[in-house]
Structures are given as C-alpha cells and as structure tokens.
Amino acid sequence: DSFDILGDGVKELLVGRDDGMIEIYNFEGADDPVLRHDYALSESIASIQGGCVGKDGYDEILAATYSGWLTGLTTEPVHREGGSGEELKLSQEMQSKISSLRNELEQLQMKVLQEREKYQQSSQSSTAVSSVPAFSVNDKFTLNKDDASYSLILEVQTAIDNVLVQSDAPLDLLDVDKNSAVVSFSSCDSE
C-alpha cells in the first residue's frame, strides 16, 4: 500500500512480506526508496493497508496474517512522561478501555475452560469418535541465489511439533535467525 504514515506530506510505501516483515519505505530523493522502519511478525503477511482506524489524528498500519490475525501498528504514543514525583493518571477513556479489555479477556478464558471441559467429557465417553482435523498448509520452497540454497517455509494454523525431511541425496541444513527448531539427523538405511 502507499500511505503517508510519517506525516511528512509524501506517501510512503508499506510492504508486507512472506517472511513476516513489515517495512516502511520513504522516497526522500528521486532515485531509490529508503527503508525508514521495519517490524517483524511471526507469520507471513497476506495484506497490508494504511489509514486512520482506532483513534482520530493517529494513523495506523493494519496487516492481515496468513492465519487470519489482524495486527495494527499505530503512531499514537503508548508512553506518557510525568514530572518528578507526579503520578501518571489515566484518562476516563483509557480506564474504560482497559476495563472492557479485562472483561473480554475473562469471558474468553471462561469460554476456553468450558470448551476444554466439554472436549474432555466427549473424548472419554464410549461413543467418542476421533478424527484428524484438516489443516490448510501454506508452503514455499524457494531458491536463494546469493548462497545457492533453498528455503523451505511451512505455515499451519496450529502449532508445528515435528517436520520430517527425507531425501535420497545428502543434505546440509543451514540455520537462520528466525529458526527456533531443534535439528536432529538420522543416517539413511541403504536398503
């Protein structure tokens, strides 16, 4: 998207990437855009849009991720400074917002507990039927020209416990910054 998120009168280029990066490029000169800000999310970004959504006078960037989460980055300051010895007082609007969020969180926690209890009861009954749920998998296997390697990216709308990679040819697995996986190797049985 293109949107004036910096408030300088010139629209910036808002980029959402498959690797979860949100980037803001500014056109300071007539030549190439300059990266001004970036922010990393944990999953690929499906769409990105700039606008005024939450509060008048404060622009935001909204990004929708692969699993359906909607993330917002705002220009509204989140920290307020008080003088020496002064207590920071929250406005009535902020107090009501915090109160409503706490109520919503409590309701969601209660709903999760109820559903978990319902699942436990149904899974222990004699008529319980177990089935494997169908998941939509977002996968990419791309060549990195710089180091002649391939990147395998897998995204699922639930936690990934294990990924098994099997190959007839020997493989070298390279670690990347965003990887939190523990790699273990097994030798192949020639038969």
From TrEMBL:
The encoding gene: Bbs7
PANTHER family, per the entry: BARDET-BIEDL SYNDROME 7 PROTEIN
Taxonomic source organism: Ptilorrhoa leucosticta
A Gene Ontology term for the protein's cellular component: BBSome
Superkingdom of origin: Eukaryota
Protein name per UniProt: BBS7 protein
Ranges where the BBS7 beta-propeller domain occurs: 1-75
GO biological process: cilium assembly; intracellular protein localization
UniProt xrefs under InterPro entries: BBS7_GAE_dom, Beta-prop_BBS7
Domain BBS7 GAE: 133-190
Residue ranges the record marks as coiled coil: 91-125
Keywords on record: Coiled coil
